[in-house]
Amino acid sequence: MANLRILKKEIDYRLEEFVFDCEMAIYFQPSKEEAVVGLMEKAVALRNALYVKANNPTEPHNASLVRKYYAAMRRDMVSSFAAMFEELSALNETK
Fold it and tell me: Whose CB has fewer CB within 10 Å in the chain, the N or C terminal residue?
């Protein structure tokens, strides 16, 4: 991981993209607004949890462990947001 600031920007970027997709889903299917807003709240909670994890590595004085920690965190972030997008897609498929 090159920089903590870049990681935080990536977290925010993924959240923005998810919120934008949620807003589009609400626009096209207003009947599912409550469910989509629930997903948005879940995504914001995920963002906050990722920020806490980013600011508090387990072993801050061991560079090797810090790199592994942030690599695992990045994988977790990618899979978590992918799951959120899949959940949104599944919600949009149902009538």
Answer: C
Q: Which of 25-29, 57-61, 69-73, 83-87 has the lowest mean pLDDT?
A: 57-61
Residue 2 — pLDDT band, cuts 50, 70, 90?
A: low
Give me 52's structure tokens: 């806490």
Q: Are 73 and 50 in contact (CB under 8 A)?
A: yes
Instruction: For 61-92, give the DSSP string.
Output: T-HHHHHHHHHHHHHHHHHHHHHHHHHHHHHH
The amino acid at residue 38 is G
Looking at residue 30, its amino acid is P
Q: Is the pLDDT of residue 1 over 60?
A: no
CA distance 67 to 44: 25
Tokens of 53: 């994890």
- The one-letter amino acid at 43: A
Q: How many CB atoms lie within 10 A of CB 95?
A: 6
